[in-house]
From TrEMBL:
Keywords: DNA-binding, Restriction system. SUPFAM superfamilies: DNA methylase specificity domain (SSF116734). It comes from the Archaea. The keyword DNA-binding applies. Gene3D superfamilies: DNA methylase specificity domains. One of its GO terms (molecular function) is DNA binding. This is Restriction endonuclease subunit S.
Length: 121
């Protein structure tokens, strides 16, 4: 849907993003240490909490980043369990998507706080 309502422009996610990637549809091989896997339980109220991270090994990590490597400023959207939680990837975090997540890479022309707020309705 494109157009205008009152004085507000309406755009689709495809218009707002350089990249939209669904997560791998598999459970990572969990390890006690290694590389961080984002889980839906880490995403709440617009924030990413990795105080109790989950990990996988390098081989599984590489499989999980084939579609996209999460970069600082990317938005992760949970699509179930719970649905609709949103967070932004912070600077310096090396991670991969877990399950039931979508990665959105907004165009740089859109302000970071605005793009996250638009998705987190």
């Amino acid at each position: 849907m494109k157009g205008q309502i009152m004085n507000f422009e309406i755009n689709t996610l495809e218009d707002m993003c350089e990249l939209i990637v669904d997560c791998p549809h598999s459970t990572p091989k969990w390890t006690d240490k290694g590389l961080i896997v984002l889980r839906n339980q880490n995403i709440k109220s617009g924030n990413l909490d990795i105080s109790s991270p989950s990990y996988t090994h390098e081989e599984d990590f590489q499989k999980r980043i084939k579609r996209a490597v999460p970069l600082a400023g990317d938005i992760v959207f949970t699509r179930e369990a719970p649905m609709g939680e949103v967070c932004r990837i912070p600077e310096g975090l090396k991670c991969c998507l877990g399950q039931r997540q979508v990665l959105l890479r907004p165009k740089v022309t859109i302000q970071p706080n605005y793009r996250q707020s638009c998705i987190q309705l």
